[in-house]
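[agent] plan:
  1. take the single chain provided in the ticket
  2. run structure prediction with default settings
  3. attach structure tokens to the ticket
  4. add a short note for the reviewer (M.T.)
[agent] executing step 1
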Amino acid sequence: MLMICLNMLDTDEQRVSFERFFREQRQSMFAVAVSILHNVQDAEDAVSQAFFSIAGSFEKISHLDCHEMRAYAVIIVKNKALNIYKHNKREDEKTLHTQSEIIDDEAFEQLRFSELDEAIGCLDERYKDVITLYYYYGFSAKEVAQLLGIHIDTVRHRAMRAKKLLKQVLEEGENND
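[agent] step 2 finished; step 3 output follows
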């Protein structure tokens, strides 16, 4: 995979920079993907897809500092993992509809996660990124502020606002059922 990504780049300088970025970030990106997917093979796919995307836009992002690039990588791999998760969920739902099986506790928990995931998906991007990095990945408010290039008070405000919006979205969803 690394060789394919390196071949996507134009200059030797970009290749050296990308290889260093790859070696520094692949473990943390894999950890993010596993935390979402709970499956090693799917997590590896998400990381590969993320690196291909990053390599495709590396010229545009190579000027970012290491914290901004790390945040970019986390957001990219998170989105790739969520796409795989949604695809797997659709496949699981097809199986559930074709088979009349009782949903066990683990499947129920996955459905609850998907409701939360859908609710987060309804949020504005600025709230979505803050709540994902702050609550889901456990970054401190200071780290999120550095990653996103915003003030720490803005992170706290957006996190509180995002929680209120999520609560509204989830309550509306329950009322519609």
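[agent] step 4 note for reviewer: The chain has two domains: 1-82, 102-177.
[agent] ticket updated
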